[in-house]
Amino acid sequence: MSEFNQPPREGSLEAPTRHPLNWQDPAFYDEAPLMEELERVYDICHGCRRCVSLCDAFPTLFDLVDESPTFEMDGVARDDYWKVVDECYLCDLCYQTKCPYVPPHEWAVDFPHLMLQAKAVQFRKGERKISHRLMSNTGLTGKLGSIPVVSQALNAANRSPGMRRVMEKTLDIHRDAKLPAFHTDTLRRRDKGRAPKAVSPVAAGPTRGRAALFTTCYCNVNTPEIGQDLIRVFEHNDIPVTLAAREACCGMPKLEQGDLETVDKYRQRNIPQLVELIDAGWDIVAPIPSCVLMFKQELPLMFPDDADVLKVKQNIFDPFEYLVHRHKAGLLNTGFSTPLGTVAWHVPCHQRVQNIGPKTRDVLALVPGTEIQVIERCSGHDGTYGVRTGTFAKSRKIARPVVNRVKKMEADYLVSDCPMAASQIADGLELRHGETSPLSLLRKAYGL
Questions:
Q1: Helices marked H in 125-186 — which ranges?
Q2: What is the DSSP string of 27-90?
Q3: Is the confidence at residue 29, as pLDDT, over 90?
Q4: Which position among 68, 111, 161, 273 has the lowest Cβ density within 10 Å, counted as fewest Cβ atoms?
Q5: Residues near 299 by Cβ (< 8 Å), separated by ≥ 6?
Q6: pLDDT tens across 338-361, in order?
Q7: What CATH code would you report for 335-446?
């Protein structure tokens, strides 16, 4: 048989490769070729349908096809292509865990980055809602939320049914969506004046034994206790911790809106000072999986020729990934004093796609008297998707299987490395214990 008559080979037979995102090329924003590529990829997805259970983007696409006059993509109106785009929240799981046609397959399907390109086109055309732009501006909301009087007003408004109805009309935030509290006593304020533990750092694998904490907007203002627990756990393991001094948002919320210019602005603020820390002998850790993924994957794909971006990529770690490297070298303190019982551990999507394996499970399982039950399914929160009026109900529907699994487990604890996912799941449960962060649970196991 000649090479021209060979059928397309089955995918998933080779390691996937990711092509850089050519977002600075003006052609990236040309809508005509974008629509052609959407039709091509949608047609491949329609013929495969393996991703139907991941999110609502794929059921939306398949319903459009199945309800069309031809039962094929040629029967779907191109204006309806955007309905699929609006349902994608860039979890990246279809690329990393399901799609058999990702590069190096000849069909070269990269569904998440195609959706990102479409969102970027929408954003440049001014078609992304102003309310969504505001919600994704975590730097602004965090700054306002840390001001004492403003913080009290925001928290009171979040608890007021009347104000929530107003917020639903003006900000597109569903009245029943659970919103995080704001803290004036931020992580940075709590940590002010603390000096890193005075011990000599010891290298282990790719880690050098000193960690600079990229606090993230969320852990600084909304869940400062998680950052504190990370510091306690690391320094209990003789890993000195300092805080990155001048960080901005990692850029993930803006990436999800297609606002790539603002992502670049955040890069220009974050990367130089992170490189400065790395050059001074510090590794970088961040307590939010989405932030780690941003520096590990998305920024390197946006700036593949930027040596500083690549340096941060090589030196940033998920906290439990970092601890496993220490454990492999015999440096992890395993003197646990408190058993944890049965722990339901939800694996966030943005942690799964880092391809680091179940490191959180591996560390928690070291605690005597502890059983880890793993849940690898989306929580449905995914940034603004879980709180917006138009997607809140779908978000809760996506979360329902996770909530039901936790109920059946009758676990002592529910934890997720993503505090937003943990909050989304816990909202459908009656928990006996307050800790929903695995870092907080590890601190408890140490008796700290």
A1: 130-135, 138-145, 148-159, 161-171
A2: GGG-HHHHHHHHHHHHHHHHHH-TTTTT-SHHHHHHHHHHTSSSSSGGGS-GGGHHHHHHH---
A3: yes
A4: 161
A5: 251, 263, 267, 271, 309, 312, 313
A6: 999 999 999 988 898 888 999 999
A7: 3.40.50
